[in-house]
Design brief:
By secondary structure, the chain is an alpha+beta fold.
Length: 412
């Protein structure tokens, strides 16, 4: 019987299968995160703009702070210079007050001399009334005016009065100078304190502004980092969704290919019982022949190849692997099978396990829900047994059929 259409379909299925490896567990598709990604990207872009504006505000505030720092330093310099002037003014005030004290003491001494003179004149009966007028005058000028009237007073008495007047004048001038010096000190202190307070308040306010703006900038940077992380996560999720969609499409295409192959196999003529028994006899004649990975063809055992685990035993061993044994046995009854376990799964009719008969092919998979994981095939001989070439290091032998991993049976 011809196997060309079947072989072409199998090659197409294998080409599709190669795109799907490694296989991922089938499951519900996750929602497409494109909209969330676009929203997150827009949010991150807005965050970047806000952060840039915050940085500009901080830079401007820091520039203003630098200006205010210079102004404050100038105010401090003026404050120091004004303090030096204040110290000089305070020294002048102290000197003025010392002069005032000396002048007052001198005036008091002169006053005491005049008082002594008045007492002496009184006791001697001199011109007391006129002198009393002088003593009771309204100030230095009045004293001089009245002193000129004291013709009876001796020259020594006139000298004494003039000295008293000059002492009082010096005392008054010293008092004025001391008061002016004190007022100047007070004005200097007030002016300097105002300068210092203005500079400190400006510096404090600007420091608070810079601190607040810097905190805002840090908060925005943190938010931006979180949103950028979200964008990256959503981008990865979107890429994963695309991969999942591609894999799902490939799995669907592969499933369709397998279904088409299986339908083609089911539509072909089915082997008879007699052919199945002849296949079993050919298999029994191979008992004891070594396993050789990729070994065996329609003519019998052959050298094999390096197996999937890297074992090179097949290179120097003449024998069969599992699918090589089955294709050899079935070739003797006119059915040409491909030398690949997965192909043989779709090269015939799938039959229920309770209807097994001699010669049927029994298959084993790592995942019995997934035919793509089929890895072994044997020839059923009855009573729950099969003849197979199980693995490197073994020989063609009898093995149990109904064991974990049995996925189904095919009759060519």
């Amino acid at each position: 019987m011809s196997t060309i259409p079947r072989r072409l379909a199998v090659v197409a299925a294998v080409a599709s299968a190669s795109l799907c490896l490694p296989m991922l567990p089938a499951g519900a598709a996750r929602p497409d995160p494109s909209q969330r990604l676009h929203k997150a990207q827009a949010t991150a872009a807005a965050d970047k703009e806000s952060l840039a504006q915050a940085r500009q505000r901080v830079a401007a505030a820091q520039g203003r702070l630098t200006e205010l720092a210079a102004t404050a330093q100038q105010a401090v310099d003026h404050y120091k210079a004004a303090l030096a002037q204040l110290h000089t003014t305070q020294a002048a005030e102290a000197a003025a007050r010392a002069t005032l004290a000396a002048a007052a003491a001198h005036a008091d001494a002169q006053q005491e001399q005049v008082n002594d003179f008045a007492r002496a004149t009184y006791m001697s009966g001199g011109p007391l009334s006129s002198f009393a007028v002088v003593l009771n005058g309204g100030g230095p000028v009045a004293i001089l005016d009245r002193a000129s009237l004291l013709g009876a007073v001796s020259e020594s008495q006139s000298t004494l009065l003039r000295q008293l007047v000059r002492a009082r004048e010096r005392e008054s001038a010293a008092a004025d100078a001391a008061a002016a010096a004190t007022a100047k000190v007070a004005r200097g202190v007030a002016r300097i304190d105002a300068m210092r307070r203005t500079a400190l308040i400006a510096m404090t306010n600007q420091h608070m502004l810079v601190t607040n703006l810097t905190n805002q900038q840090d908060d925005l940077a943190t938010t931006l980092a979180a949103h950028e992380s979200q964008v990256a996560s959503l981008a990865r999720e979107q890429a994963a969704a695309r991969v999942r969609a591609k894999l799902a499409a490939q799995r669907a295409a592969l499933a369709a290919s397998w279904a088409a192959l299986q339908a083609a196999g089911e539509a072909m003529p089915m082997a008879t019982k007699k052919q199945g028994r002849r296949v079993m006899k050919w298999a029994k004649r191979q008992l004891g022949i070594p396993h050789s990975w990729a070994g065996g063809d329609v003519d019998g055992p052959t050298l094999g190849a390096v197996n999937q685990e890297g074992n090179p035993a097949g290179l120097h061993t003449v024998g069969f692997d599992c699918s090589g044994l089955t294709l050899f046995a079935w070739a003797h009854v006119g059915f040409r099978l491909d030398h690949y376990t997965g192909y043989q799964w779709v090269e015939g009719h799938h039959i229920p396990l309770e209807r097994l008969r001699a010669g049927d092919l029994v298959f084993f998979a790592r995942n019995t829900a997934n035919p793509m994981s089929i890895h072994h095939v044997g020839i059923y001989v009855g009573r729950g047994k099969m003849i197979d070439a199980p693995h490197t290091g073994a020989v063609v032998r009898y093995d149990d059929v109904f064991v974990p991993g049995l996925i189904g049976a095919v009759r060519p």
